[in-house]
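Closing statement on the zinc ion sub-project.
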Amino acid sequence: MTIQHSAVRKVFPLLSFIIAIAIGQPALSQQVKKKHHHKKTAAANTALPAFKFKTIIIDPGHGGKDPGAHGAYSKEKNVTLAIAKKLRNALNEQMPSLNTVMTRTTDEFIELHRRDAIASENKGNLFISIHCNSSPEKVSPDRGVLILVYGYHRAGEQLEALRENASIFIEKDYQSKYSGYGKNSAINTIVLSNFQQKYRKECIHFGDLVNHEFKKVDGRHSLGVREQGVLVLQQSAMPAVLIETGYINNPKDEAYLNSAEGQSEIVQSIIRAIKKYRESLEQK
Ligand SMILES: [Zn+2]
C-alpha cells in the first residue's frame, strides 16, 4: 500500500491526501514536520551529557505497624520520617534542579519490595534509605553512624541487615516475595548480579562521602561503610545506601536524633555528600 501510495502521491496530490487520511497515515505536510522534529530531537540528544543525575529517592525506614527500633521515648519510624522530610525540603530548596521522590510521607506500612518499585518507577539515580540503629541492650553502649550498602559481607557484620530485614516478617507471603529468605537463616552467600556489581563501586563511593561528612564536619562517631545483605537495597535498580543515622537506644544519640539541630546536621551532611557525588559523576 505504501509503495502504491507514494506513486499516487506524485500524480494526484489531492487523491494522495484523501488516501492518507483513509488509511490513517499522516498527510505529507505532517510527515515533513515530523521528520524535522526528529532531526531536532537527535541534535538536542547529542548535545546532552550521556548521563543525567536527576532524581533522588528518599526512603524513610519502617512505618505504620512496623515501628522499627525503640528508644527510651521515641520510635525509629517517626525519626526516619522527620529526617527524610527535612532532607526532601532542603534538597528542593538547595538543589532545585533535582527531583525528589519519597517512598512514604505519612506513618504507613510500605513493603520493602514496594519501596524498590517506587524507586524504579520514578527512574531514580540514587536511593537513600534513612534508618536508626539499635543494640540488643535496653540502653545501648554503642553510638554513632553506620552506612550500609548491599553486597559482599564478612562474618559478624550481618546484625544490622538482619534487623532491618525483619520488616518483611510482618508482610504477607514474604517467602514468595523474598525467595530463600527465612526467619532463621541469614543470607549465607551473596551472589551479586551483574547489575549489583555495576553499582557496587558507586554505592561505596557515595557511602564514603556521607560517612566523611558525618565524621569530619559533624564530629560524629562512625562505624564506617559496610556491605551487608540488606533486602531493601537488594533489588534497587540504582546506586543505593542505607544510612543508620544513630543508635536510638543510646541516650545521647536519641536526644541528637530527635533534636532540630541533630536532624539538620544529618540532612546537611547528606546534601554535601550528594553535591560531591554529583560533581564526581559529571567529571566522568
Ligand atoms: Zn531500620
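Confidence is low (pLDDT under 50) at residues 1-45. With this model delivered, the sub-project is considered complete and its resources will be redirected to Aim 3.
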